Predict the structure.
Amino acid sequence: MSRHQALTLDEGLGGKDGGSGEKADRTGAVVLFLHGGREDGDARPTRWNLPGLRMLPFARAVRAATAGQGIATAHVRYRHRGWNGTRADAVADAQDALEEIERRFGPVPVVLVGHSMGGRAALRLGGHATVRSVVALAPWCPPGEPVNQLTGTPTVILHSDRDRTTEPLSSHDFAVRARAAGTPVCRMEIAGSDHAMLRRATVWHTTTARLVAGFLGVRLLPPSVSTALSLREGEPSGLDLAVTP
């Protein structure tokens, strides 16, 4: 049986193996995108599945915001559409993708950007040795979802107040518990949008790109985000920041 290819690199970027001729030493960081899925499902996502396609404009926005800085964008390829209970298949695939990044580029810093189920997986992997920060978009945060793995990892959650698929109050509770566990965390709300991030799509894309560029030192983070990330347990500020156009 052939080995699962858990990673897709944008724009033909190579690595230690030389894939496209792009030298590994020209890539100083990677932004890894994790698309959404389902609670359960063993089918393999198709190349053109909608959750995956929704992440493409995010990747384009990040590339535009970090152009010329040696930052690659890549996507996790899932073996299954579903999370599938304790199997947590999306986490396993994302971990494989992180290992593939290290094989290709060495131990470069990685920013995880995950949506819905992918957001849950990104939050689960926030403690990985190469993960510098996490941006979780409308993440699926069931009650009791673990937070200790994020201790010390700057994390920003974006959620719409009108999301009817993943509960905004659940991501707020997650952020409160994560802060109590020592996570530098900020949570932002995009008013009037939806779970698929189609309404006010440009706001989602530009906000995410600005956060990623800030985490990678290409530009400054928004002051309100920096302040929120500096707060500690019991301080409620910065967990309901409104995203303005």
Remarks:
- Helices lie at 50-53, 56-65, 89-105, 117-124, 168-180, 201-215, 223-230.
- The domain at 7-242 is CATH 3.40.50.1820 (Rossmann fold).
- The chain has seven helices and eight strands.
- The CA atoms of residues 6 and 77 lie 5 Å apart.
